[in-house]
TrEMBL record:
Subcellular location: Endomembrane system; Membrane
Gene3D superfamilies: 1.20.5.2700
Residues that span the membrane, as ranges: 6-23, 30-51, 87-105, 117-135, 141-159, 180-196, 216-240, 252-274, 280-301, 308-326, 332-354, 375-393, 413-433, 454-476, 505-524, 605-625
NADH:quinone oxidoreductase/Mrp antiporter transmembrane domain boundaries: 135-424
Annotated organism of origin: Flavobacterium hungaricum
Protein name listed in UniProt: NADH-quinone oxidoreductase subunit L
Keywords: Membrane, Transmembrane, Transmembrane helix
Length: 627
């Protein structure tokens, strides 16, 4: 029964992919969208059944399909591990995935390749499920590479635009850099413990005599590099904002709610490895804190509505890694869940705005949409309140948990996280004021056609807004269902991070005041003063540095891309040309020998017989003389 459920969970999206690839175009857009949506919805129902079973029994489910690889004493099975962590991830991957598929039926309806879009989305869900439920690192790696492939396909979905193709290639290549780190980490782990299976590995690490081994720290660091690539942390973060080139449902599904959380999932799954490598945990916390602050500063001045949300995602992921670096895995998971709710809602809401403005993404050309698009406005407002940490929305609980954890472990990183959180509140309400308030700044034609999006777009927005409002209830201070649920996976006692005293209440008050301060500054600047960001050419000073993202892309281009291009041109123009001359020269010599040789072929049978007789005589004479 468990095996059947696991196979239905995994294979239904794959079946949806195959149907849409081979028959989607002939079935029509509506049927193609319905098939893709139903496939993911079925996986969501199965996830609910598995969640109910694991919650009631408190035990995970191990499914082994077959023995896969055996090299010496290293044995790897193709199997699934369905426990508290994987099923929790499945719920929002398939649940939010279903809503985004439903949304996409309307959003992508005018696209000629809609069937291909749903095929790619289904394939992504298949690989993401594989990543989450794999029982060992190799199965995880299959899903890991698969979601990277689907990200490439979906970012460059509108491939007629070369900029979108460039963004897709950038995401693909930068993720491969991180994936090399993940592979090296897997090789080290496999060589040290002769296993890649999670359960066996945990037992081996627990029983290891020397946990201070530099090799184990190196393995943990390499695994974290893989997480940096997939979850967009410094220095491998620049692909994520460019990934906004893909259709907005892609941004919501892959680059807000699911794929970018793969790094957090992997670190949490291997918590016992990272707990044994404290020096690497410190690196994780520092990188997470810096990433959250750097991305937040860049988000302050962006004018593309999706770019603001993209840098917000990078910043929030940084806060999650901040918690992971302190070993507060359940706190990071909590923020993953709440972030999936409000960030998916924000991305889908921005898609509704873009859809209503016929592709316009520049907030300087928006404004006054509150009355024309009330459902989009209210749902995005709720999600903005949640991400800003306003009581008592979901983000208030999860973000405060992270900041409290940081305060108890490292004051400097607590300050960094708090500043990033204040900036988050500022740029999110900057987005809200520029988009929905004051007078409309677009064209008259756009103004004439302003309207609320259809029900297939607004229903997912409403559901996500409700989750963004009440999602924090799963982990209330002093009464955390989530901590109790995840307790079997971690060594420390459940509820440890939820103990509240005077210090914690003070920190909570400081965080709330910080969020309100950010909102208030945005209100004064963009509502009271009716300030509109300047055109690109008029941006100067620090704003220009932030607007151009600290020129990191330009630095990467100068340090890595251009030298590689120059080296490639050198090989093309000199080495390859020289080798080609050698190869073609050998060909010419061969042709000349053949040309001269063919002159011996006169076609005279008498001459051939004469030469044959001479040859036979020469051979016979040689044999007799040799004796």
């Amino acid at each position: 029964m468990d095996t059947n459920l696991a196979l239905i969970l995994v294979l239904t999206p794959l079946l949806g992919f195959l149907v849409n690839v081979f028959f989607g175009k002939s079935l029509g857009k509506t049927v193609s969208g319905a098939i893709g949506t139903i496939a993911v919805a079925i996986s969501f129902v199965v996830s609910l059944l598995l969640f109910n079973q694991i919650t009631s029994t408190g035990k995970g489910i191990q499914v082994t399909l077959f023995d896969w690889i055996q090299i010496s004493n290293l044995k790897i099975n193709l199997g699934f591990l369905l426990d508290q962590l994987s099923v929790l991830w499945l719920l929002f991957v398939t649940g939010i995935g279903s809503l985004i598929h439903l949304y996409s039926i309307s959003y992508m309806h005018d696209d000629e390749n809609m069937h291909k879009f749903f095929a790619y989305l289904n394939l992504f869900i298949f690989f993401m499920i594989t990543l989450v439920i794999g029982s060992n690192l190799l199965v995880l790696f299959i899903g890991w590479e698969g979601v990277g492939l689907c990200s490439y396909l979906l970012i460059g979905f509108w491939h007629k635009n070369q900029n979108y193709n460039d963004a897709a290639k950038k995401a693909f290549i930068m993720n491969r850099i991180g994936d090399l780190g993940l592979l090296i980490g897997m090789f080290i782990i496999g060589s040290m413990f002769s296993t890649l299976d999670y359960a066996t590995l945990q037992t081996a690490v627990a029983g290891a005599s020397d946990l201070n081994s530099p090799l184990l720290s190196l393995a943990a660091l390499c695994l974290f590099i893989g997480a940096c690539g997939k979850s967009a942390q410094i220095p491998l973060y620049t692909w994520l904002p460019d990934a906004m080139a893909g259709p907005t449902p892609v941004s919501a599904l892959i680059h807000a709610a699911t794929m970018v959380t793969a790094g957090i999932f992997m670190v949490t799954r291997l918590n016992f490895v990272f707990d044994a490598a404290h020096d690497v945990q410190n690196v994780i916390a520092i990188i997470g804190g810096i990433t959250s602050l750097v991305a937040a500063t860049i988000g302050l001045v962006q004018t593309d509505i999706k770019k603001v949300l993209a840098y917000s995602t990078v910043s929030q992921l940084g806060l999650m890694f901040l918690a992971l670096g302190f070993g507060a895995y359940e706190v990071a998971v909590f923020h993953v869940i709440t972030h999936a709710f409000f960030k998916a809602c924000l991305f889908l809401g921005s898609g509704s705005v873009i859809h209503g403005l016929h592709g316009e993404q520049d907030m300087r050309k928006m404004g006054g949409l509150r009355k024309a698009m009330p459902i989009t406005f209210w749902t995005m407002l709720i999600s903005s309140l949640a991400i800003s940490g306003v009581p008592f929305f979901s983000g208030f609980f999860s973000k405060d948990e992270i900041l409290m954890t940081a305060f108890h472990h490292n004051i400097s990183l607590y300050v960094v996280g708090s500043i990033a959180s204040i900036m988050t509140a500022f740029y999110m309400f900057r987005l809200m004021f520029l988009t929905f308030f004051k007078e409309f700044r677009g064209t008259e034609e756009q103004k004439h056609h302003l309207h609320e999006s259809g029900s297939l777009i607004t229903i997912p927005l409403i559901i996500l807004a409700i989750l963004a409002t009440f999602g924090g209830l799963i982990s209330l201070p002093g009464n955390s269902w989530l901590n109790e649920y995840l307790a079997p996976l971690f060594s420390k006692a459940a509820g440890e991070e939820h103990h509240l005293g005077t210090t914690e209440y003070t920190l909570m008050g400081v965080a709330v005041l910080g969020g309100i301060l950010g909102i208030l500054i945005a209100y004064i600047k963009y509502f009271k003063q009716d300030n509109v960001p300047e055109s690109d050419e008029n941006i100067t000073g620090l704003s220009k540095v932030l607007y151009n993202k600290y020129y990191v892309d330009e630095a990467y281009d100068a340090v890595f891309v251009q030298p590689i291009n120059s080296l490639s041109k050198f090989f093309r123009d000199y080495i390859e040309t020289g080798l080609s001359a050698l190869v073609f020269g050998l060909g010419k010599v061969t042709n000349e020998i053949a040309f001269q040789g063919k002159k011996l072929q006169s076609g005279s049978i008498g001459l051939y017989l004469f030469v044959f007789v001479l040859g036979m005589c020469a051979i016979i004479s040689y044999i007799f003389l040799a004796q």
